[in-house]
Amino acid sequence: MVAAIPLEFAGANPGLIAGDVIYEINGTRAKTLEELKAWLEGKKNKEPVVLLIERSGQLTYLSFELE
To answer: At 40, is the secondary structure helix, strand, or coil?
Structure first.
């Protein structure tokens, strides 16, 4: 679950808000924060990312490019 967006990352935020729950990243299930961080390691600038998130009880996709 997204707890908060630190101010220093607000400009790079792809649209996540506090309370969002991230289920998948590019089709890979993300069960823990460590799994999410491990997936992000080594990714390149401008690489496309699609998150499956739950917001207010609704599942939705959020797409963006890494900066």
So the answer is: helix
Q: And the tokens for 56?
A: 């207010």
> Please, what sign has the CA dihedral across residues 18, 20, 24, 25?
negative
User: Is the Cβ–Cβ distance between 26 and 49 less than 8 Å?
Assistant: yes
Backbone angles phi and psi of 40, in degrees to 5: -70, -25
Q: Shortest CA distance to 21 belongs to which of 51, 63, 64?
A: 51
pLDDT at 6: 60
The answer to whether position 35 is within a domain reads yes
User: Residues 4-47: pLDDT tens digits?
Assistant: 566 655 556 677 888 888 899 899 888 888 888 888 787 777 88
**Would you say 62 and 13 are in contact if contact means Cβ atoms under 8 Å apart?**
no
Range of the domain at 29: 15-65
Asked if residue 21 is part of any domain, the answer here is yes
